[in-house]
Amino acid sequence: MQKNGGFMGKLSKMLKIHTVFAAVLSLCFCTVFTACTGGDGDNNGDGGGGEDIPPVILPEEKIAENNDYANPIYPLHDGEKKPLYTADPYVIKGDDGFYYLYCTQTEVYLSDDVLGKTFKRGPVFKSPDCVNWVYTADVFESYTPDWVSPVNGNAPGVWAPTVVKVGEYYNFYYSFSAGNYDNPEIGVGVARSRTPYGPWEHYGKLFNSGEIGVINSIDPHVLWDGGRLYMVFGSYGGLITLVELEADGLSLKGGLEYQREHKTALAGYERYEMENYEASIILKRGGKYYLFLSTGATLSGTKSTYHVVVATSDNIAGPYLDSKGRNMFGPNRGDYVVTPSMSGAMGVGHMCLVEDDAQAVWMLYHGYDTQAANYSDWRVLYLDKLLWTDGGLPYVKDIHASNHETLPGPYINALEEKL
Length: 419
Description:
Helix content is about 5%, strand content about 35%. By secondary structure, the protein is mainly beta. It has a four-stranded antiparallel beta sheet with strand order 4-5-8-9, with no helix packed on it. The protein has a four-stranded antiparallel beta sheet with strand order 10-11-12-13. A hairpin with a 5-residue loop joins strand 22 (about 345-355) and strand 23 (about 360-370). The chain is globular and about 55 Å long.
């Protein structure tokens, strides 16, 4: 359990000041998202761009009338939604107009013709609307990573992937770990494909903790900024760290030794405890950078205190400060984006962002369903719209996950605009 020192008191205060402002309807987004990266206009896969796009004022908010959803979101199998463990979700929108979901290794329902579930290291799900998901591929169908040793008989696993368009390819980055945070072998691997679903060309290890000099080198997130490709990564016990990649995303800019010496710490502290941070995502919006971080106990089922906080900076390399002016190099900092609730979902975090056809931004993350009759110890998929305070800070409505409540989902042109 997290020792969060007055968490509920702080939460109560935040709930009073974070209200939904009508002005959010005309807030501007300076990017068209093609992936869950929250890039800045460079995220078109060619490394081009480089300048912050001037804000576009949205004339009105479009509400979906033909794409309802209710959390938690389960994938479809044989026409029915079946409970499925989908921790650490990451979603992109492919060039084909479909959304693709990746997550930590799990068992999946393979197809309508297959009964039961089969274990997959790199499951890929496909959706036309970001709500109805169907299993479609396996990133590791032809490759088994082997560069981390088993620990106490536990085989290492593929965790927390992220995908970004790089030129003509989709680059798939993943954590490979056996769970022991201070193991120097754990780190990040990479593969690529010309489609979001494969076939995948595997390049194996990009770096590990010992080589890059960062404890617990997992949870990679890759994004374009100013025509340059960056990775932010790190987890409990170590620092959230920023490095630069070569233009093809398959190696570190200038080589491993160069990035080891020139990497930048953005948040965290070198002590393994649940108040530390992980699952970093950087969004650029209106010339400002938003660093989203997950913190709190994450593997305690409906007792999990996991939640998402945010800090901002004028530079991708920081410093990132919360609304109280505190940097993120200590515990219990940042402004709340989504928090646990026994009336909704607990352990909410490890999020990503994706934009719909009306330029609204949606947050996908995992949580424990407190209302579940079964599988309440599974981390399952949640979807909620990202809103903004008048002070420019992101959050979801009520700062809690919606749960078992039917709401309008992402706006999809093909569903809403009839010919």
